[in-house]
Design goal:
The protein has about 130 residues and is an all-beta fold. It is about 0% helix and about 50% strand. The strands form 2 sheets. Strands 2, 4, 5, 6, 9, 10 and 11 form a 7-stranded mixed β-sheet that branches. It has a 4-stranded antiparallel β-sheet with strand order 1-3-8-7, with no helix packed on it. β7 and β8 form a beta hairpin. The protein is globular.
Length: about 130
């Protein structure tokens, strides 16, 4: 069992930056691929970024490429999402997720992940 807790959300002006953290407990996340997703009320949860267990493989949604960076520190059992050049359309609840995997793969589908955090709100004002 893995427990995930997101933090770092908040209110920021357009063009600003935030860094989200996802702290894991229960089991080491070093054997898990991790992902960040976001959801706006009334819409489906959508993929934002993913990273494999070692950090050697990463991928991003087209809408955030060049602005967001996913990283991980397995020694700290934490995954990060650095968000720069934020836009109002980035406003959402952001969730981190974990999937047991020690391959080079990253995962894009909500259904692929086994564990989820409770989410952290990010609001970008124009």
């Amino acid at each position: 069992q893995v427990q995930l807790v997101e933090s770092g959300g908040g209110l920021v002006q357009a063009g600003g930056s935030l860094r989200l953290s996802c702290a894991a407990s229960g089991r080491t996340v070093s054997r898990y691929a991790m992902g960040w997703f976001r959801q706006v009320l009334g819409k489906e949860r959508e993929f934002v970024a993913a990273i494999n267990w070692s950090g050697g493989s990463k991928d991003y949604a087209d809408s955030v490429k060049g602005r967001f960076t996913i990283s991980r520190d397995n020694a700290k059992n934490t995954v990060y999402l650095q968000m720069n050049s934020l836009r109002p359309e980035d406003t959402a609840v952001y969730y981190c997720a974990a999937k047991a995997s020690t391959s080079y793969e990253v995962y894009y589908l909500v259904a692929a992940y086994e564990y989820w955090g409770q989410g952290t709100q990010v609001t970008v004002s124009s």
